[in-house]
């Protein structure tokens, strides 16, 4: 529950610190005094978006802090999942600087606004006239009834399965679309792969073929040069090797007469050995590279095929063609693997669908069981609120498809007049009837302990007299279960409260400031008497106020 609210520099509030206690609290004050300002400040720490115009002093930041006792609310898991320090007494803080930038904190840890709002939704229910209008929507009706049914485990189980079901359906649709596209692509991929595969690509082949092509293309010239080299070196009568051999032998005989001659003899011997090896290698080269026109044609055909593949696929090397071939291989394997993945996802979806159907049936049974009790209690509360002939029922129709909340459509039917036929709320209930019906529903829901705090923002609009007193009694009966607050103009409601806060305006240094104080018993009597009076408080109004308080 909310235990303290601190407000600084927010619209008409310069600084305020308000203590709250369990039970029923009312907030009263003249129109425009600032009752809704306090509610607006509270909304900031519950995740409402900030407006820089709320700063009273535009040169200073606005700070709103709320202290909550959450020790019994089972929120430890929420804090753990969001890496927050759990404290039984938790502090929510919101800051808005003069530039309009907003920051949010939970126990001094900076958080984003969505996280603050998520926690705020589990701490406080602010019920306004706008929320009453939401009662016309089936989604709101579903939430209210499910809160009364109070089967969180069934709802969580269904919700988890529903999310898995939606996710699996989306994945299956994606796989089917991908598979259809893959089937269209398969023929193309297979043709490209088989063409590259049949090419028997080798990363070193191109270089060897190009060398071979140059050799064979100039075979005649090369053969002529080789034959000339062999003839000149060793086959002619006065061959180079013969002449060099004679020189070598001559200098060898004279090598003992001078060191230079010995060196010449050694060099001539080395040259003779080198030329002899060269002649042998040239002869061997000639024997291994016989010119074959057919081989040249084969090399050119192969090179042409490889060049064509490179040009077709816009690559510059055999290694790139090999990479491309492997990519096509992978795509074909992926298409084959996609069939298995598609079959597995279909099987998973079928299993989830079976579990989801079972969870939906369990949830439907729990709801169906609670309908008669819910209808009876709502009608009883409506009678307490002066609607003696009101009829209320819950119609639940099974749907063919699953929704986030189940596999049925739930609609509230209502009729306020005797002899009338109940119809959907949106078609039958007036504004005042909607207000009282919403109060009855909220009363039932919150007695189940759904939220620790509920605040009614002028829910008494259009209500007066005896009905106002009955409305106050219902709020009072709610307060032992949860913390109840009501912003009200009616003395009949104010008199039922355990705590009475008053909002008023005063002028300070030519500036209007709003303040809020807790009233003592005497001040409270005077405030209620003032609410009963036209202008001045009289003995009669004080006596009436005293009677209201004594009978509360």
CATH architecture of the domain at 1-123 and 453-471 and 479-518: 3-Layer(aba) Sandwich
* Helix content range: 55-70%
Radius of gyration: 47 Å
- Topology-level CATH name of the domain at 1-123 and 453-471 and 479-518: Rossmann fold
Any low-confidence stretches, pLDDT <50, length ≥5?
Answer: none
What is the mean predicted local confidence, pLDDT? 86
Question: Tally the helices: what do you get?
Answer: 18
- Biggest sheet, strands in spatial order? 2-1-4-5-6-7
**What's the shape?**
elongated
What name goes with the CATH superfamily of the domain at 1-123 and 453-471 and 479-518? P-loop containing nucleotide triphosphate hydrolases
E-strand count: 15
Biggest sheet features: 6 strands, antiparallel
Q: Keyphrases for this structure?
A:
single chain, 552 residues, alpha/beta, Rossmann fold, six-stranded antiparallel beta sheet, six-stranded mixed beta sheet, 18 helices, 57% helix
